[in-house]
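Input record (one chain):
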Amino acid sequence: MDAEHLTGSKDEEQEQAFTWKHLFQSPDLRRPLFIACFLQVAQQFSGINAVFFFSKSIFESARVDDDHVPFAIIGTNAVNVLMTVVAVSRSSGQPQ
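The corresponding structure, as predicted from the sequence alone:
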């Protein structure tokens, strides 16, 4: 195989160039863009950002040991990331 075959031809590269117009007009990109924006708006309305911001004081008031508070915060954030990945994968129509 030659190098051009592995990397694609120059015409394909020019055809695949990213533009903002393509992002909004492409039917293949419209749904993922909507999902990403919807998740960001839902996150704002759910108040989860306040939970993350005040998580240290929330865990301290729940009498979690000071040594364990950082791990509780990391665990809370990990659950948020995991649930976001699950929500996006389920709503994108991709097989699991």
